[in-house]
Amino acid sequence: MAKRPHPNTLPLPPQVLTVACEWCTGAGIIIDRADVTVGVLCAGCEGRGSRQLTIQPFSGRRRIDGIKRVRRSGGGVWMSMNQLPRTGKTKPVGISYGDFLRDKLP
Ligand SMILES: [Zn+2]
What we know:
The protein is mostly beta strands. 5% of the residues lie in helices and 21% in strands. The chain folds into 2 domains: 15-55, no CATH class; 66-106, no CATH class. The protein contains 1 helix and 6 strands; from the N terminus they run ββββββα. The structure holds zinc ion. Zinc ion binds at residues 21, 23-24, 28, 42, 44-45, 49.
């Protein structure tokens, strides 16, 4: 009897990896632009020079309950769903979540 390949149906556990901080590239400080002899404590790693990444194996997009529409980032401007600034008129923003899950992009 031939042995069938075992499908990998069990999710792999997340792996934690210590990497150099991408803000300070491992220095723990960033050079002060006003005085290059001064190091500013890196806000990305609080001076450690490293960060921990959790490597989560990807097996397809995780779905989020309650999401109806998907839009592009508004450049830091947050507005309520379907609300246009000033006019107050409503217009569907972006694309439906269903379209997004079918690999369309807003
Ligand atoms: Zn850093």
